[in-house]
Amino acid sequence: MKKTLSKYDIANELVQDEYANFSYAGALALAEYLEDYEESTGEEIEFDRVAIRCDFSEYSRLEDWAVDYFSDSKQASDAMGIELDMDGETWTGDDEEIQDDIRSYIQDNGQLIEFEGGIIVSSF
């Protein structure tokens, strides 16, 4: 027996997961990504919110992801305006250049979903 979920059903399920930290806008962007993935591959995805929670994380900004991913200790991401050097990965320049470098790094190694208000990044 199967039940087909709309992107709004998926977003609601993700937001209601007490162990996840998805905003509604982020959950909706992720649901749209999953729908697009199904359409492009021709494969149906079985909805598993625990697996989705483990495979994707939401951040307010690209720099917040970089601090979380590359740093053992949380640092104030606002202090990264000039240079970001984490575990041998160095990004320098103005904020826009650093954001472009972080964006490229994520896209080269995983999946990046950008939406108004934040980003969703796949685990890699």
Q: What is the overall pLDDT average?
A: 85
Q: What is the H-and-E element order? A: HHHEHEEHEE
Please list the strands of the largest sheet in the order they lie side by side: 1-5-4
Please report the distance between the alpha carbons of the first and last residues.
32 Å
What integer value in Å does the Rg equal? 16 Å
Unreliable runs, pLDDT <50, ≥5 residues? 73-82
Beta strands, count: 5
User: How many structural domains are formed by the residues?
Assistant: 1
Backbone structural class: alpha+beta
Overall form: elongated
How large is the share of residues in beta strands?
15-25%
The number of distinct helices, counting runs of at least 4 residues, comes to 5
Query: Biggest sheet: strands, sense, closure?
Result: 3 strands, antiparallel
Instruction: Give the fraction of residues assigned to helices.
Output: 40-55%
Tell me briefly what this model is.
The chain is α+β, with helices and mostly antiparallel strands and 124 residues long.
Can you describe this structure?
By secondary structure, the protein is an alpha+beta fold. It has one domain (about 5-120). The chain is about 50% helix and about 15% strand. The chain contains 5 helices and 5 strands. It has helices at about 5-15, 25-40, 50-55, 60-70, 95-110; strands spanning about 55-60, 85, 90, 110-115, 120. The chain has a 3-stranded antiparallel sheet, sandwiched between helices. It has a two-stranded antiparallel sheet with strand order 2-3. Strand 4 and strand 5 (about 120) form a beta hairpin. Helix 1 (about 5-15) packs across helix 2 (about 25-40). The radius of gyration is 16 Å and the shape is elongated.
